[in-house]
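Allow me, if you will, to draw on your knowledge of protein folds for a short while. I have a record of one protein: its chain in single-letter code and its fold written as discrete structure tokens. I remain grateful for any guidance, and I place the record below:
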Amino acid sequence: MMYLYRFEVELEVKMLHVVVAANDQETAFVAAEEEVEKNFLKLPTISSITLLEKKPIRKTAGFVIE
């Protein structure tokens, strides 16, 4: 079963929210880190990645990100 994972990623200069779909938590953490790296020209230093929510993907699934 696929899940949506919502992470808070702390960089040296700011916080990011990352949402990924994955089969398991380990894969989700790796995917979150890869998504952060893809969005910057210079690779940022990630201080921490915190899992905030996990939801099963059904017909609909989503998160509100503030």
The domain at 3-56 is CATH 3.10.20 (Ubiquitin-like (UB roll)).
